Amino acid sequence: MQTRKSVEEGRTIAEPLKDTDVFPPMVVQMIAVGEHTGALDTMLSKIADFYEDEVDEATANLLALLEPLIIAFLGLVIGGIVVSMYLPMFALISKIA
Fold this sequence. Notes:
Elements: H1 2-8, H2 14-20, H3 25-37, H4 40-96
Helix pairs in contact: 2-3, 3-4
């Protein structure tokens, strides 16, 4: 709302965004450059592309960390199933012999 009011008063978009501390300084600077050059839409598109790449990279890293954990968990589950299948058979064989 503060940004909206400041734009209605004729100020730039970047000034109130800098005061809110919600956006990183790089984003505010890129918005300011986009306003000064008249290419705000291009700058916003570049910001979106940058953060999209960053999120994709973070997601890929998280999946790479989770893969070994998932494999270990599945190994334990399958191992538990195998043990639960063979344990009664071994118990039965030991009683027969």
